Amino acid sequence: MTENDKVEKGxxxxxxxxxxxxxxxxxxxxxxxxxxxxxxxxxxxxxxxVKESWNPKLHPPTDIQQIADHAAEYSKTIVITGGEPxxxxxxxxxxxLKDKGLEVHIETSGAxxxxxxxxxxCLSPKKTKPPVKEAYEYAHELKVIIYNKHDFKWAxxxxxxxxxxxxxxxxxxxxxxxxxxxxxxxxxxxxxxxxISLQTHKYIGIP
Length: 207
Fold this sequence. Notes:
Layout: H1 3-8, E1 12-22, E2 32-38, E3 61-63, H2 64-72, E4 77-81, H3 91-99, E5 103-108, E6 120-123, H4 133-138, E7 141-146, H5 150-159, E8 167-172, H6 177-190, E9 194-196, H7 200-204
Parallel strand pairs: 2-4, 4-5, 5-6, 6-7, 7-8, 8-9
Antiparallel strand pairs: 1-2, 1-3
């Protein structure tokens, strides 16, 4: 089997980086977690803070056994992010991680067919490439990035599509956090089904 075949089957993944840190966003904010960042994304958000993840060819295809073994050394909570991880077959790596007794989370735009076995599915929809229908059904958490006031209406459109027990978060786009924070706070007070998510890892200066 060639390396390309292994990538196609999800046995190798374009690994951009892996690191142990504190989850800075959403429902599990403040929790220690091991992050696995997979390269490759064509969603194309203009405000993306990891544009270097977009081209998968820049990141070496890495054996998922090696990735899983590293992850298990650090934490019981594993977060797979990107890029857009669902561009790849996530079934093999999540199976390895679950077999090690680990709790496996994903952060995704939901723009691709869902694969993998997830304990926590964070859906963060993007306007440039909206989620597929099944992504809403998997979502434990809906995290909408707020860049301007029009995004509140867009957030509600997605909230109407997730399950009743899905946690709802509004998160200011980092470069607009001071501009939009009052509007987000007021909106949450008027619509308390939502909560505010902040990129706390950036405030405390960790990855």
